[in-house]
Design brief:
Length: 159
């Protein structure tokens, strides 16, 4: 058995905005003291239709039931309607950036080593230039890899 709450209020002759406007005008009139209970038209209030939900069986509507509600039992064993949230039943995916993080850590360590080697080889110009080239290359690689875009592209995902 399934139920459908119809959003169609065809028996309603006025829209929500019109009803709201009518209620507000009655409230304003009461606040201003322009009308009293004896003068108020009791039929005017009755003319504003109140929309109500209506039951439409899935058999008569011809629509397939959503399957999100089913009859279940609570802790006491009595019957209750259970809602299956489609957002909760979806698959969960876990991203892992450990490999990228290790690669970035390795590059940062290499950068520190090269900086130390440059400081220790201050007398040898040839060696300093060579180490500075390697350092510039490592720094460029770090700039390229140490960002969110690279992490997203190179992370591994599992269910």
């Amino acid at each position: 058995m399934s139920m459908k709450v119809s959003g169609n209020y065809s028996d309603s002759k006025t829209s929500y905005a019109e009803r709201l406007k009518a209620e507000q005008s009655l409230d304003q009139a009461e606040k201003a003291g322009k009308t009293n209970k004896a003068q108020k038209d009791p039929e005017a209030v009755d003319k504003i239709p109140v929309p109500r939900d209506e039951y439409t069986s899935s058999e008569s509507s011809g629509e397939k039931p959503s399957g999100m509600y089913h009859l279940g039992q609570n802790k006491d064993g009595s019957r209750k309607i259970v809602f299956d949230d489609p957002k909760k039943s979806g698959e969960k995916c876990v991203g892992n950036t450990d490999q990228v993080d290790r690669e970035i850590k390795r590059l940062k360590e290499k950068q520190q080593q090269l900086e130390q080697q440059i400081q220790s080889a201050a007398g040898d110009e040839q060696k300093v230039r060579e180490l500075e080239k390697k350092l510039a290359q490592v720094e460029g690689e770090l700039r390229q890899k140490d960002n969110d875009t690279y992490r997203r592209q190179n992370s591994s995902f599992s269910l």
